TrEMBL record:
Stretches assigned to the F-box domain: 11-49
Pfam families: F-box
InterPro entries the UniProt entry points to: F-box-like_dom_sf, F-box_dom
Name of the molecule in the record: F-box domain-containing protein
PANTHER family named in the record: F-BOX PROTEIN-LIKE (PTHR31639), LEUCINE-RICH REPEAT DOMAIN SUPERFAMILY, F-BOX-LIKE DOMAIN SUPERFAMILY (PTHR31639:SF315)
């Protein structure tokens, strides 16, 4: 943004539903990084209608791959403050073992309405419609 501090950028002036669509195209890790853009963006990721968790986004360059326990912690860090109604929830972690904890995370944060859930754990791609 250039010029006066009172001018807003064009993207922040878009309607909330358009901003949601933009954020939903990003993995959760990238969407969370938009919080530094402006006050308008600070809480937008918390109301996204679609959450996409991908394995590469949680790994820092030069550091070992996160453990399953660390990934579960990351899920909670994102899902606990989430206030929006989730329409889509996707997990893509090929090296992560399916577990009871992951099932509990999914059922805790996805209300019993028609929702699309997809996960890729151990190279098995599953899409489930919840009713």
């Amino acid at each position: 943004m250039r010029g006066s501090n009172s001018t807003r950028d064009r993207i922040s002036d878009l309607p909330d539903n358009v901003l949601d669509k933009i954020l939903c195209c990003l993995p959760v890790q990238e969407a969370g990084r938009t919080t530094v853009l402006s006050k308008t963006w600070r809480k937008k990721w918390e109301t996204m209608s679609s959450l996409l968790f991908v394995s590469g986004g949680f790994q820092s360059p030069g550091k070992p791959k996160p453990t399953t326990a660390e990934l579960k912690f990351k899920f909670f860090q994102v899902l606990l403050p989430h206030k929006g109604s989730l329409q889509r929830f996707c997990i893509r972690f090929p090296d992560m073992e399916p577990s009871r904890e992951v099932d509990q995370i999914i059922t805790r944060f996805l209300p019993v309405k028609r929702r699309t859930l997809s996960s890729k754990l151990n190279e098995i791609n599953v899409v489930v419609l919840l009713f």
